[in-house]
Amino acid sequence: MSDRMAQWVAVMRAERYAEAWSLGALALAERDPATRDDPSLPYHLRWVWDGTPVDGRDVLVRCYHGLGDTIQFARFLPLLAARAASVTLEVQPRLLELLRTLDAGLRLHPFDPARPLPPAEVDLDVTELDFALRATPDCARPPYLRAPAAILPAGTIGLCYGAGEWDADRSVPPAHFASICQRRPVLTLVSEPTELAVLNLAGCPFDIGATAALVAGCALVVTVDTMIGHLAGALGRPTWLLLKAQPDWRWNPAQASSPWYPSVRQYVQPRAGDWESVIAAVERDLAAREALAEKQG
């Protein structure tokens, strides 16, 4: 990680957003315009916005990163729509229906990597929206997405233990959750069969709409750092986020809360690879939560 990137991560985690935007402006000024949206690079490594103001212009927002990134920064799309002449969102097809619930007058277009839309007056990657708008997380607080809640047994916990292939260190071995699943109604939010004692042994449907409905119906979501955490946070659901010792930039390991998602509580590994301590803390807090609910009910 470069010194400037490390400084940007530090100020973002400290919620000193003006300093982060200043660092972003320095990086933007140093970019070679000829490398903008460079087709020789993978989409997630490209830069898109050249600093052109969005006000009164036709804006194309491209979603070149992961599903979780799109969900996290989609909060700013209504703010953009209020300032731009028009907004087209070129979004991962799996997220189309979910993002229609933003109700921001957007034109939604499925992103086809082989045939991306031509440039507009202003092109932005969705992860550049906060910088382009100078908007903080408090400018667009959850819930900002909506989903009909699935009907589930009272107290159902939604569990996601797998983070895919992007970063295997984010995933938790499923066996760590055996005790939690044996004593409570638990629904897996991973799209694969499981041997855990859950309500849906075949796994969660590989469908964002169906997954969002399950998340909306859960009393609590316990998840590793993946799209499910962003989805649950964007829906405003109580969420316990399990993080590796050195988590992604958007999570401050020194805090239990997140400015991006107020409904999220963070559980960070005390040492790299130590999921046992994290699960033990989750077990203790689940027991305390259930004791309080019993006392109140």
Q: How would you describe this structure to a colleague?
A:
The mean pLDDT is 95. The chain has 297 residues and is α/β, with parallel strands linked by helices. Strand 5, helix 7 (178-183) and strand 6 (186-188) form a beta-alpha-beta unit. The termini are far apart. The protein contains ten helices and nine strands. Helix 1 (3-13) runs antiparallel to helix 2 (17-30) and helix 3 (67-73) runs parallel beside helix 9 (227-234).
Computed structural class: alpha/beta
Share of helical residues: 25-40%
How many β-strand stretches? 9
How far from one another are the termini?
A: 50 Å
Topology as a string of helices (H) and strands (E): HHEHHEHEEHEHEHEHEEH
**DSSP strand content:** 5-15%
Mean pLDDT: 95
Q: Identify low-pLDDT runs.
A: none
Strand order in space, largest sheet: 6-5-7-8-9
Rg: 20 Å
Number of helices: 10
Characterize the largest beta sheet: strand count, sense, and whether it forms a barrel. 5 strands, parallel
Which word captures the global form? globular
Summarize the structure.
The chain is an alpha/beta fold. It has helices spanning 3-13, 17-30, 67-73, 77-83, 96-99, 129-133, 178-183, 208-217, 227-234, 275-296, and strands spanning 58-62, 86-91, 107-110, 122-125, 157-160, 186-188, 220-224, 239-243, 264-268.
Helices and strands, with pairings:
Blueprint: H1 3-13, H2 17-30, E1 58-62, H3 67-73, H4 77-83, E2 86-91, H5 96-99, E3 107-110, E4 122-125, H6 129-133, E5 157-160, H7 178-183, E6 186-188, H8 208-217, E7 220-224, H9 227-234, E8 239-243, E9 264-268, H10 275-296
Parallel strand pairs: 1-2, 1-4, 2-3, 5-6, 5-7, 7-8, 8-9
Helix pairs in contact: 1-2, 3-9
